[in-house]
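Worked example 2:
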Amino acid sequence: MSEPLKTHYAIVGAGIAGVAAAEAIREIDSVGAILLINGEAVQPYCRPLIVEVLKGERSPPDIRLRRPEWFTEKNISLVTGSPAVGLDAGRKRLDLKSGRTVEWRKLLVATGSRPAIPPIKGLDDVASFTLAGQDDVESLKPRCKPGAKALLVGIGLVGLQAITALTELGVEVTAVELMPKILPVILDAVAAGYAQSRLEEHGVEVHVGTAVGEVRRAAEEDRPYVAVTDKGASIPFDFIIVAAGMKPDLSLLDGSGIETDRGIRVAPDLQTSVPDVYAAGDVTEYSDWIEGRPEVHANWVNAYHQGRIAGVGMAGGIAEPYQPVHLNSLDVFGLPFITIGASRIDNPEGAEVLVTESPSRPAYTRFVVRDGRLIAATFIGDVDRAGVFHYLIRERIEVADIVQALFEQGLEGMEFLYKLHEKTVRGDVEWAASMGLIDFFEKDPKHTRWGGKEGAERRDAR
């Protein structure tokens, strides 16, 4: 039997949370051994960008989180293709699929999330995919030919990425969503209507409030498979992509004694219920001041921040507190959407809702104010000011007296921001700093400004 691998810091998961943690540890501790465990047999990569690989616009090396030599330069040992399959938190041991054992002093669980698979009869008997990783993308690529027909189950963020990629590749798409609106985790009903219309304008057949109950080989259809919905409709298809949401991957924690609910419960310093064990990223459940309950904040920005906070704590430092706020930026066939905070709630209790829209442009803006503070903002079309309102929500700025002026971009709101919160004018929709290391990634400056050229002129004048 091989000797155990001994390390000071073990990090399970090499997504953005795990890489950010390793980076933060090394900034404080220049000598402590770091072992980064990547379950996939590839270099750590940016998962949200795998659709670029599917479309053939990028190759896998283009979306790596760090250059391979970065790990050597930082003296970080990287294990690939051998996921952790067992955890003994009391004895501080990890078992890897390869059969090796890891002994550690501090542990970070950054295992991310895995696809939620709905109970569809016959799913294992048809060509099905999840877009959960690079292997899935490589298997799917040969099927994405012009004229092929895809059935997509679930129209959330992953589903939207799939729709865009497939359509650009010439694949005909029928998309089914169980909830009564698409993108149900981030959009209110009106905003979802804009997104659905955009999909339909580009040839996507959309069914909401619908479930796929069974898939099977077709007897007489011109496609190899057929799906039957709960409403009795039959949908022929060549392959199916299941994008019915993601859930925290807690499989490593069975029997570990680490407290979990929907995700791993963590303290503000990202430490779990077991000393010396931390968690960060999509796998965590964190107190949400807007919702008033623990929530899973599964997004890139949150994972980056949590990874850094956990890394600082593991290395003995003290990190600034971080209160996550849901933040999503997406593009629906050229129409930009940004949502911040509790944007999905259609009828928020005890809150004021301000809306302006222009369907012909199209453009839509929605603010939700509760107890004098913004708790949600949605921007469709005109996204230039989103960074300002992300700041106001994240910092819990009191805006009761000037909210209407802010909404209308009136003088009173502008003066408030310039005098008391000058840095909001500079804007900061937070794309994690590490994205800058991906060679082709460029932050869209339109997402971080008060009002484009005019706003910049006002700022410079002061």
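Residues 123-244 form a domain with the FAD/NAD(P)-binding domain fold (CATH 3.50.50.60). Residues 300-314 form the longest helix (15 residues).
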